[in-house]
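USER:
Make up one protein:

ASSISTANT:
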Amino acid sequence: MTVAPAYQLLADRIRDEIMSGQLRPGQRLPTEPQLCERSGLSRSTVREALRLLSSQHLIVTTRGVNGGSFVAEPDALALGDSLSDGVGLLLASGAVRGDEFLEVRRMLEVPAAGLAAARRQPHHLAEIERAMIDPDRDDLDRRIEAHAAFHLAVAAASGNALLGLVVRPLYTVADRRTVEAAAPLPMWREIDRDHRALLAAIRDGDVDRAMLIAREHIDHVRPEELPTEHRNEPVPGVDNL
């Protein structure tokens, strides 16, 4: 049985206190000498534990008279980036299959579209409209950026902040070369038609139609976000990818 290093054990203990609410956002952690005394560990080991917690966006450390280590305020963007990195690694390594990726998209995108139709506000509609593309004029970088922005804007229109955080990794793991090979211009035209139809349903507040369009969009559009090694895997209910 492998024993975790001392700094990892200390970081895990502090992380548990943060996640349980014993340590609240903005609260100062004990000083390094205090942590050394409480844990019986050296100062270098304590610093390594704090560096690990900082890399995980759980604490922030400041210098100066009033400096120290503090529990970080929740940062949705940083958390989303961490999730995106994890999803990207899983896809690249083959630990997650193409059909599993599509199943998650269906689980999240379809109800998100329905919620967006029920809850959208004018500023949500404006964000979705800004994510529209002209597939015959926009270059590939613009199409990739707008595709992610569209789905993130729909998730935001659902009014559920957690949903917006969870779906972010699904649209930020695209590899440009993979997308270029997997999504030719006719497919981008189809994506554009689906997006415009979904925007119209959300604007009209038509929950059922929005969910139907979202479901069909996933079922007949090649999953251009997937790494190359997953593109040719057959998926039930989906054309050859």
Remarks:
- The longest strand covers residues 59-62.
- The beta strands are 59-62, 68-71.
